[in-house]
Amino acid sequence: MKKALPLIFAFSLTAGTVCLGYLKAKDYKIKKLIALWTEQSKKNNKTLDTALLTTELEKLNLYDIHLLMVHTKKALAPVSTEELKASLEKLNKRKIPQRANLRSLEGSVLSA
Asked: CA dihedral in degrees (67, 72, 74, 78; nearest 10)?
């Protein structure tokens, strides 16, 4: 029993550190994504509800947020329409638009 306690403590410490790192990475990517979207909306003279978008992005996992980040960067950069459609297809395959209400982005970022 005495040998098991340090092992259990080490596992719980490691799991807590991994969980904290995951949450910090997710928060960082959400902030970056919101910043990109607000910058784009200012160029288009539109307003975004950043609080609503933040709560909707919290529903997604880190990989989905990463896919949104990649798609946003492709949508803002001059890339081919095939590449943009393939990126949008990945988002639809993971059902990201259905799980998070991102309708305010449909005219600018979430279109091919």
From this structure: 180
Helix (H, G, I), strand (E, B) or coil at 102: coil
The pLDDT tens digits of the residues spanning 63-93 come to 999 988 988 888 888 877 888 888 888 888 8
CA distance 20 to 42: 33
Task: Compute the radius of gyration of the chain from its Cα atoms.
Answer: 18
- Among 50, 48, 49, 65, which residue's Cα sits nearest to residue 99? 65
53, 104 Cβ separation under 8 angstroms = yes
Lookup result for tokens 């910090």: 24
pTM of the predicted model, to two decimals? 0.80
Amino acid at residue number 69: M
Give the domain ranges of the chain: 24-105
Q: Give the separation between CA 25 and CA 62, rounded to whole angstroms.
A: 8
Instruction: List helix spans (H) across 44-61.
Output: 50-58
Q: Which residue has the higher pLDDT, 76 or 18?
A: 18
